[in-house]
Amino acid sequence: MTTFSAIVFTVLIGIVILFQLALAAGMPWGSAAMGGKFPGKYPPAMRFACLIQIVILSFIAVIVLTRSGLLFSDWHPLSMSAIWFVVAFSAVAALMNLITKSIWERRIWAPVSLALLVLSLMVAFG
After folding, report:
1. What angle do CA 119, 121, 123 make, to 5 degrees?
2. Considering only 8-12, 69-73, 115-119, which range has the smallest mean pLDDT?
3. What confidence score (pLDDT) does residue 104 get?
4. Concatenated DSSP letters of 101-112
5. Mean pLDDT of 86-90
6. Tell me, what's the pLDDT at 1?
7. What is the number of other CB atoms lying within 10 angstroms of the CB of residue 89?
8. Helix axes 76-99, 110-125, angle to 10 degrees
């Protein structure tokens, strides 16, 4: 079950990464991110922030895949504690997407972030 959870987690985080990449590339979807503070096309500083977030999200996926035994077996001992960073990050993301003023974030990203939280917990306890 841990392997399945890790794969689903990685697919979902991949979708989030693609969304962040689209925002960084100038897609006018700002109302569906950051509480809708930047509707339309993101300003340059926020587009750069998307690139930083892509790096963080990629690192999170690596932690989950390592913890589940699918990647970097030498790093497995480190992943045993690093997975709790992923769980905490996922919990904060879920909370923020649930309380945001952006209806699009609540409709799209709240369910995704809740799924990521549950899946990260399944991997952590797996």
Report:
1. 70
2. 69-73
3. 92
4. S-HHIIIIIHHH
5. 98
6. 84
7. 18
8. 150
* Structure tokens given for 25: 């590339």
The pLDDT value given to residue 43: 96
Structure tokens at 49: 């922030």
Q: How far apart are CA 19 and CA 79, in angstroms?
A: 26
Q: How many CB atoms lie within 10 A of CB 52?
A: 11
In the Cβ-directed half-sphere of 111, how many Cα atoms lie within 13 Å? 5
pTM of the model: 0.92
Mean model confidence pLDDT for the chain? 95
108, with CB counted inside 10 A (0-12, 13-18, 19+), is: middle
Nearest of 116, 110, 54 to residue 86 by alpha carbon: 116
